[in-house]
């Protein structure tokens, strides 16, 4: 069924591990409480979608794996949006971009979909890892710093997340820094994106409970027009990607591993690996775990995945030795 009303679309941006999926879960719960049907397009640079495990089964979800929507599979994005609208007729769509995506390029992909679907781009919510930004800000250089800066500049709403990992004075500094980079987007400090979702959405044009009224509010979407307009055209023209240096290693495990040994392996990962996630079975615990590692902080969540989910760990970073990681994982499997 093709919808006659506009389908609002939100883009979730933010560097790897900043808290996009954490926010996505809260947004979904918020919309469901209002009786709306949200749908999700998830994009991962790796070839397995582990974040999908955190989204309930009744939420229509499309996975775009094995590349970043902002470049290699950008053309597919508009097709996915069209397919989702025709198949599931959702009230709202969220596109969760890979943490290394350049939001300008995703905006391109989404607006392309507007050519043949009635969609309304509501804006870009960028989630920022406060501790990570603080470190990058002090160094003032590097590709990750520039990418994060770009993601902040493109935001229509900024969530300064993980404030539990910085001091109050540092949080204040970061708030003023991001406001300097993007004076249009409201800055909402948070821990685990724990905010009133209505506040987040209203700050950029809300999704109304009545789907018929969704058509209004288009004009409220602005992407820091004056200093970014030039960027839009330069991106479209030159296609320079800020993230071509990012690499992924996916390791499928052939059995359970010891939890303490795994934790110590993770604690000693090279700094070039800045994100990892996976599903693991430990030889010394009864249940399985969803494992997360973001900016040097590991996290384990007990899970009972539906259906067949292999034991796997995905490592994401820059110029790290895949051989070294593989050898480490093999050693864990043997012991
Ligand atoms: N300390 C701390 N950890 C957080 C906070 N928010 C999220 N996390 C943790 O950070 C890790 C990454 O969170 P995600 O929501 O998966 O991040 P993401 O941006 O979706 O990650 P990618 O999809 O890889 O880009 C998880 O282990 C979260 O539990 C926070 O405010 N403070």
Automatic annotation (TrEMBL):
CobW C-terminal domain: from which residue to which, for each copy? Answer: 253-331
Q: Which UniProt keywords apply?
A: Chaperone, Hydrolase, Nucleotide-binding
Spell out the reaction equation it catalyses.
GTP + H2O = GDP + phosphate + H(+)
- CobW/HypB/UreG nucleotide-binding domain: which residues? 8-188
Give the SUPFAM superfamilies listed for this entry.
Hypothetical protein YjiA, C-terminal domain (SSF90002), P-loop containing nucleoside triphosphate hydrolases (SSF52540)
Q: Which Gene3D superfamilies match?
A: CobW-like, C-terminal domain, P-loop containing nucleotide triphosphate hydrolases
Keyword match Transit peptide = no
User: What Pfam families does the record tag this protein with?
Assistant: cobW (PF02492), CobW_C (PF07683)
Family the entry assigns: Belongs to the SIMIBI class G3E GTPase family. ZNG1 subfamily.
State the protein's name. GTP-binding protein
Q: Give the originating organism.
A: Paenibacillus chibensis
């Amino acid at each position: 069924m093709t919808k006659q009303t506009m389908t609002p679309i939100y883009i979730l941006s933010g560097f790897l591990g900043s808290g996009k999926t954490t926010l996505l879960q809260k947004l979904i719960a918020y919309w469901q409480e209002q009786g709306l049907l949200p749908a999700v397009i998830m994009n991962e640079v790796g070839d397995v979608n582990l974040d999908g495990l955190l989204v309930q089964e009744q939420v229509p979800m499309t996975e775009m794996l094995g590349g970043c929507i902002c470049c290699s599979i950008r053309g597919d994005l508009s097709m996915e949006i069209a397919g989702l609208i025709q198949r599931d007729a959702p009230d709202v769509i969220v596109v969760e971009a890979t943490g290394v995506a350049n939001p300008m390029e995703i905006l391109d992909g989404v607006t392309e979909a507007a050519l043949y679907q009635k969609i309304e781009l509501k804006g870009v919510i960028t989630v920022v890892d406060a501790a990570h930004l603080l470190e990058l800000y002090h160094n003032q250089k590097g590709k990750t710093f520039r990418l994060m800066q770009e993601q902040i500049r493109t935001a229509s709403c900024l969530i300064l997340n993980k404030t539990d990992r910085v001091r109050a004075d540092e949080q204040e500094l970061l708030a003023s820094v991001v406001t300097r980079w993007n004076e249009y987007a409201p800055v909402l400090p948070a821990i685990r994106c724990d905010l009133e979702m209505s506040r987040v959405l209203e700050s950029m044009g809300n999704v109304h409970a009545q789907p018929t009224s969704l058509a209004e509010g288009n004009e409220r979407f602005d992407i820091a027009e004056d200093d970014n307009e030039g960027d839009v055209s330069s991106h479209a023209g030159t296609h320079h990607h800020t993230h071509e240096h990012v690499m992924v290693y996916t390791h499928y495990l052939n059995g359970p591993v010891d939890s303490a040994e795994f934790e110590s392996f993770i604690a000693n990962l090279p700094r070039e690996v800045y994100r990892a996630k996976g599903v693991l079975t430990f030889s010394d615990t009864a249940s399985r775990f969803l494992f997360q590692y973001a900016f040097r902080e590991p996290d384990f969540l007990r899970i009972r995945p539906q259906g067949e989910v292999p034991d796997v760990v995905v490592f994401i970073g820059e110029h790290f030795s895949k051989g070294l990681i593989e050898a480490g994982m093999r050693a864990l499997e043997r012991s």
